Amino acid sequence: MPIENWSDNVLLVELADDPQFTDDLTTVLDTVEQRTDLDVVLNFQEVTFLNSSNIARLLKLRKAVVISNRRKLHLCAISIHVWGVFLVTGLDKIFDVYDDVSTGLASLQLKA
Fold it and tell me: Disulfide-capable partner of 92 in 73, 86, 103, 107 (CB 3.0 to 4.6 Å)?
């Protein structure tokens, strides 16, 4: 499974296209609802498209991590096509987005 505990308080998730995308986000959501001390880093490197269901799951995850748990959610390595979806839907304004996983993980340490 592409979900791993990168550290005690950081969950690193390697996302892929559906149906794995949906399954992984469901698992992450369940995890952050049980462990409210987790920051989450999502690697979008292998994601080539987003549908409305994927967007709804991302928003639900954001609500759980950022709003309810008051933790960080970082999105990394978003392709140009998927980034276009973020721009059109306004998601670029509500998510913290980083060029790559290393930068996303490092920014967690800087903001700690």
Answer: 86
pTM: 0.93
Encoding tokens for residue 102?
A: 């290393």
CATH T-level fold of 3-110 = Transcription Regulator spoIIAA (3.30.750)
Q: What is the pLDDT of residues 59-107, one digit of tens each?
A: 999 999 999 999 999 999 999 999 999 999 999 999 999 999 999 999 9
Ordered by start, the domain boundaries in the chain are 3-110
pLDDT per position as a tens digit, 18-44: 899 999 999 999 999 999 999 999 999
* Torsion region of 3: left, alpha or beta (phi above 0 gives left; psi -120 to 50 gives alpha): beta
